[in-house]
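Fold this sequence, please.
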Amino acid sequence: MVPFDHDSRSARGAGRGIRRLSAAAVLLAALTSFASAKPFVATAPTDQRCRAGALQTFRPALPAARKAMQETGRLTIVALGSSTTAGSGASAEDKSYPFVLQSELRRRLPGAEVRVVNKGVGGQSAYDMLLRMDGDVIDEKPAVVIWQTVVNDAIRDIGEEKLAKILRKGIAKARAAGIDMILMDLPWLPREGRYPHFDDYRAVLARTAEQQGVSLFPRYAMMKGWSRSKQFTEEELVGMNGLHLVDAGYRCLASRLADGIVSAVGDIEIQTIRAESPPTD
């Protein structure tokens, strides 16, 4: 607070003091208002970096998600996957991509009830996740499932036809339950040459997604674009083990997924569904 000179007998001095007091009061009110306001999420700089070098766009078709938003104002997404989904390499749980995706969608879809359920289990194969499809995905009654898989299958070289069959079964389960599916492409890795079958299994994933009419999130191309843009160091995207993402990589993953999901839902008016009041005697 600016001190007010009570001993001043000059009208001009008094006026100056009052003006100073008023300015201080305005500043105090502004600070109080800022402190009580909702936290500001500074996403613009991050969003710009995450779009650097991006030649790939993600425009999924998500009719179940759009219908859920129109009819209920709610959107539930299950993130099914292995270590990328579980958040291996992230500095904290709230830095994992499903957590950041939930925050991004809530920010971008004000008024909607958005929930992203993390069902990531590190080290699992596509078959392991297929076995979890009923309990971990369908029982949650989501509109969308994001299936991040194939990395461990490529490393173990389980067989390309076997993988394709597993993916087809998982897609069929989701489709039968009326759930939109997004398959996630494999990651770009700085030292992917360590895995000789990596590109072959990526091709199986892409081919299956195309044949089954399922949206494929182009993670590989996006990560390669981020690296070549020079906006990130290698260590900001992929950890020291050369395999798992770290905070910036997860943040960008979530941001670009949110871009596609919001574009698929479209500009709709969210209607709040209220339960009818019980009849009174």
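The domain at 44-264 is CATH 3.40.50.1110 (Rossmann fold). The two ends are 61 Å apart (CA to CA).
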